[in-house]
Design brief:
Layout (H helix, E strand, L loop, with lengths): L3 E6 L7 H15 L3 E6 L11 E2 L4 H10 L4 E6 L5 H12 L4 E6 L8 H4 L6 H6 L4 E4 L2 H9 L7 E3 L18 H7 L3 E5 L8 H11 L7 E5 L5 H9 L7 E5 L3 H10 L2 E4 L8 H9 L3 E4 L8 E4 L4 H14 L12 H13 L6
Parallel strand pairs: 1-2, 1-4, 2-3, 4-5, 5-6, 6-7, 8-9, 8-11, 9-10, 11-12, 12-13
Length: 351
């Protein structure tokens, strides 16, 4: 019987950080003879393939989890911890003959109002302490689960990043290619259109950047609740033609945009080990990002919500020119660490 791991979480499209990690982990497992079925918990349900399941209701998900055989059930959570996700985590721990692993991807949760109330005497603690292992993507999340009362040996710090097995598209399609052709230097941001990404700061800063670099442009890839508001903010600037609010893009196109850009911006108020930052370093694109205490080597960091510091860093990197490409040395080490954790719980997954 083929050993099997069941991955629960969002699956692309769109290609967010958690989705990309789930795809990479599934690929890594399948290459080693371990079946990796996916239960997609995202509202987008267009992916088609063997072992990819799209339950539409909580009842469908429960029936599916009860039916699918697996040694490990691995739940991936980003953002906030909703009652529905808590119920799902509890249900997973009640499944017979399964061991349950949670990867918590939310870099902002530990400092959120909900995160600050973490403690042993909470419903969240009672459920989280039933999990066999928790994978934290940054040190703040490790400390969060310690406050929930999990023993240190049950919480592992493992970065979600793995080098992409997807290659960049050969060229940027229209309108991206047309925009990039006439806007240089090209600044790029990849992420959600949500308040914590502080995109209004980037939009405002571009005007000041263009005082020195008149042809500079800003390309924004991603989707979210602020799309209409950002579109209005862009239209209100005298340089609206220099900003392209594109929306989501397929992963190969996103990688090509990163490779073709002069600078990647990441101005989040809080963050984890951002996938786009790692991909930019791998592709040799300079990065200016807010300091979250865990940016990889090669990133120029600035304080959050500081327009003067952001402008100075952008100007400095553009004036210095693009440095020689420096590729990251991380291979599949992080994915191997996840598999090693699985094997601690389920020796039948092999060695």
């Amino acid at each position: 019987m083929t050993p099997r791991v069941l991955l629960l979480g969002p699956y692309p499209p769109p290609w967010g950080g958690v989705q990309t990690h789930v795809v990479a982990l599934r690929r890594f497992l399948r290459e080693r003879g371990i079946a990796g079925d996916v239960v997609n918990l995202h509202r987008h349900r267009t992916a088609i393939g063997e072992g990819i399941h799209h339950p539409r209701t909580a009842l469908q998900a429960a029936r599916l989890l009860a039916r699918l055989e697996a040694s490990i059930v691995h739940l991936h959570i980003g953002g906030t911890v909703t009652p529905r996700l808590l119920a799902l985590a509890l249900y997973c721990t009640l499944l017979p003959r399964r061991r349950t692993v949670l990867t918590f991807h939310s870099g902002g949760y530990p400092t959120s109002p909900a995160g600050r109330t973490a403690g042993r005497l909470t419903l969240r603690s009672l459920i989280f302490r039933r999990l066999d292992r928790v994978i934290a993507v940054n040190p703040a999340i490790v400390r969060l689960f310690q406050r929930f009362g999990l023993a240190p040996e049950r919480v592992r710090l493992i970065s979600p990043f793995a080098l992409p097995d997807t290659t960049p598209a050969a060229a940027l399609p229209a309108p991206l290619g047309d925009f990039a052709a006439i806007h240089r230097p090209l600044l790029l941001t990849v992420g959600l259109l949500e308040p914590e990404y502080d995109l209004p700061l980037q939009i405002a800063t571009l005007g000041r950047v263009r005082e020195r670099f008149p042809k500079a442009g800003l390309l924004i890839l991603g989707s979210g609740s602020l799309h209409a508001r950002l579109r209005e903010a862009i239209a209100a600037t005298p340089y609206a033609e220099a900003i392209l609010l594109h929306g989501d893009a397929p992963h190969p196109v996103t990688l090509r945009a990163i490779a073709d850009s002069d600078l990647l911006l990441r101005t989040t108020w809080y963050d984890g080990d951002a996938l786009s930052v790692r991909e930019a370093l791998h592709l040799g694109t300079p990065v200016v990002a807010t300091d979250n205490g865990m940016r990889p080597d090669g990133v120029e960091t600035v304080p959050a919500r500081d327009p003067d510091a952001l402008l100075a860093a952008i100007t400095r990197r553009l004036a210095d020119g693009v440095p020689p490409a420096r590729r990251t040395t991380i291979g599949d080490d992080n994915l191997q660490a996840v598999l090693d954790l699985y094997r601690e719980l389920a020796p039948e997954l092999g060695h």
